[in-house]
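Hey,
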Amino acid sequence: MIKPYKIPESVLVVIHTFDLDVLLIERADKPGYWQSVTGSKDRPDEPLRETAVREVFEETGIVVGADTQHAVAADQLRDWRLSNVYEIYPVWRHRYAPGVIHNTEHVFGLLVPRDIAITLAPLEHLHYMWLPHRAAADKCFSASNAEAILQLPRQTGLGYQS
């Protein structure tokens, strides 16, 4: 079976605590590459919020909007109304239709309790860590991910505005 091309529209979800610690996950296909939760739409008409909820669950096991042990309330997922258009790294362009070199990424934030259980998708991610937001931004391989994390105090109204 031929795998369909990825849709060049995605979400970036900055998962964070009230104290602005940020969850980073290490890519399995590129060890040493740390990032927030990211993922493309499954279908062109998939709402961005649905994409964000699905990707958070697939990559971390966190359920958004359910009343279970690994869940957070739906209102803790916030659309920051920020979008980035970036050039897709050449190493991943084969996943997209021929000629597609740019992706539009929509940024969300998700406030979670610090002790929430994380269950990584082993084929996608190797490890996770919590870091203060500035250290997390420094650890990200992606410039747009780092910039989103640096926006965290302003977007949430939490922590220091430095």
